[in-house]
């Protein structure tokens, strides 16, 4: 009696499950058919109107042209002067006078005219190698001439030995330091504006016109002329207590190092060929090996400096050594006796 209801209940449950499974399977099949059918269905045509803002071609081109013209137009500048009708307790100073010939562009025609006028007077310039032709420092067709030594250069340095022995020998040779001073003044006046120059005087100590070579402008030439006229030494000694004198116990060695630091391409050394120092004692003669060493170390070929020695009554040995140094550098040696 009890087994029949249980069997019937079991059947109902199984039937419900089968129906539920059947419904889900059917639903899945139908959904699959719809999904697959979407790929085979033609798309629905849609018409949409979007807002498209465009400038006409002519207006766009006109605006671009106007913008380019505005970009190249000159900027406005303020040209009105500041004025005031109210009195003040101060007034602006006047503008100082400026040397316009030094700040204006260089005129090639002026240089040519200067060279032509110089060539016209070349006969008055010294061009020989002896005492009789040693005058007339200046510039000619072959370059510059100073105390009979003709050479070319744009960076010129004059080095004067004004020791007592040189002063005495120069006087005896007919070329006193006063005459050399005049030749130096003449040379400075004729230096072209394209050149640079410097001046050094020494005994053992030294003093120089400037620590560097300076351009041959009107102001620099005027200052150099004044320096030579007022600072020129003829007494044969230099004390460090004097204005501008620098202590130099090494004598010509220190002077040549100073000269090399200025990087000249044309060097004139006026001396008697006898050099002393205070390194190993008072007034000790400097060996020629030391002089040649400082020249070789400080005046290399790359510096391209021609060293010209002008001597007064030099000994045979001193004259030989000076001539060798001059020839090696491409310079000249002149002995005034």
DSSP helix fraction: 40-55%
CATH level 1 name of the domain at 153-336 = Alpha Beta
Question: Helices and strands: which structural class?
Answer: alpha/beta
Number of strands: 12
Task: Examine the secondary-structure arrangement and name the CATH architecture of the domain at 153-336.
Answer: 3-Layer(aba) Sandwich
Mean pLDDT: 78
Order of helices and strands: HHHHEEEEHHEEEHHEEEHEHE
CATH superfamily of the domain at 153-336: von Willebrand factor, type A domain
Which fold name is given in CATH as the topology of the domain at 153-336?
Rossmann fold
Total DSSP helices: 10
Radius of gyration: 49 Å
Low-pLDDT stretches are 109-136
Q: What general outline do the C-alpha atoms trace?
A: elongated
Strand content: 5-15%
Quote the distance from N terminus to C terminus.
168 Å
Task: Give a short account of the largest sheet.
Answer: 7 strands, mixed
How does this structure look, described?
The protein has 337 residues and is α/β, with parallel strands linked by helices. The protein has a domain at 153-336: von Willebrand factor, type A domain (Rossmann fold). The chain is built from 10 helices and 12 strands. The protein has helices at residues 3-40, 57-72, 100-103, 108-120, 164-172, 177-190, 218-231, 252-261, 288-298, 316-329, and strands spanning 138-140, 143-146, 149-151, 155-161, 196-202, 206-208, 214-215, 266-271, 276-277, 284-285, 306-312, 333-336. Strands 4, 5, 6, 7, 8, 11 and 12 form a 7-stranded mixed sheet that branches. Strands 1-2-3 form a 3-stranded antiparallel sheet. Helix 10 (316-329) links the parallel strand 11 and strand 12. Helix 6 (177-190) runs antiparallel to helix 7 (218-231) and helix 8 runs parallel beside helix 9 (288-298). The protein is elongated and about 165 Å long. It starts with a helix and ends with a strand.
């Amino acid at each position: 009696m009890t087994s029949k209801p249980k069997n019937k209940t079991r059947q109902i449950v199984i039937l419900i499950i089968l129906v539920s499974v059947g419904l889900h399977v059917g639903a899945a099949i139908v959904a699959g058919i719809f999904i697959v059918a979407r790929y085979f269905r033609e798309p629905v045509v849609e018409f949409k109107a979007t807002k498209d803002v465009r400038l006409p071609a002519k207006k766009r081109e006109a605006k671009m042209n106007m913008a380019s013209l505005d970009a190249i137009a000159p900027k406005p500048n303020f040209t009105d002067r500041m004025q005031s009708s109210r009195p003040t307790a101060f007034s602006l100073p006047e503008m100082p006078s400026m040397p316009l010939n030094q700040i204006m562009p260089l005129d090639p025609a002026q240089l040519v005219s200067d060279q032509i006028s110089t060539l016209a007077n070349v006969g008055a310039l010294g061009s020989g190698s002896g005492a009789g032709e040693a005058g007339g420092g200046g510039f000619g067709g072959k370059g510059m001439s100073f105390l009979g030594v003709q050479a070319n250069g744009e960076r010129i340095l004059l080095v004067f030995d004004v020791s007592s022995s040189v002063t005495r020998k120069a006087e005896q040779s007919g070329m006193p330091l006063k005459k050399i001073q005049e030749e130096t003044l003449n040379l400075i006046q004729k230096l072209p504006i394209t050149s640079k120059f410097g001046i050094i005087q020494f005994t053992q100590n030294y003093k120089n016109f400037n620590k560097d070579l300076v351009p041959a402008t009107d102001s620099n030439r005027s200052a150099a002329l004044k320096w030579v006229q007022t600072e020129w030494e003829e007494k044969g000694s230099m004390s460090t207590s004097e204005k501008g004198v620098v202590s130099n116990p090494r004598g010509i060695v220190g002077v040549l190092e100073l000269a090399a630091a200025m990087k000249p391409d044309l060097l004139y050394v006026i001396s008697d060929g006898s050099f002393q120092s205070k390194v190993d004692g008072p007034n000790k003669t400097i060996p020629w090996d030391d002089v040649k060493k400082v020249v070789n170390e400080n005046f290399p070929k790359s510096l391209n400096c021609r060293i010209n020695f002008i001597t007064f009554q030099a000994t045979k040995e001193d004259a030989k050594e000076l001539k060798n140094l001059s020839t090696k550098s491409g310079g000249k040696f002149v002995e005034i006796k």
